[in-house]
Design brief:
Elements (H helix, E strand, L loop, with lengths): L2 H5 L18 H21 L4 H27 L1
Length: 78
Amino acid sequence: MGEHARTGAGRGEEEELTPRMNRSNPYVRMAAIGVGAAVVYGVEQGLAQPLYVAVPLAIVAYAATLISVGWVLSARAK
């Protein structure tokens, strides 16, 4: 990130950057990976779809879990 974005230069004040979402938390990442793996398994085994259908669905589920759990934990921290 550039110096202007970090220090708030140009706006006349110094502001501390806080992460918007707690996505770097290892528990959030583990939960998202678990959901993605469960989606791959469920779509492949339960619905008998090929891997090229299951993987994109798992990526979407991973991203949705990562974002939603990150928002919940960051909102709880405030």
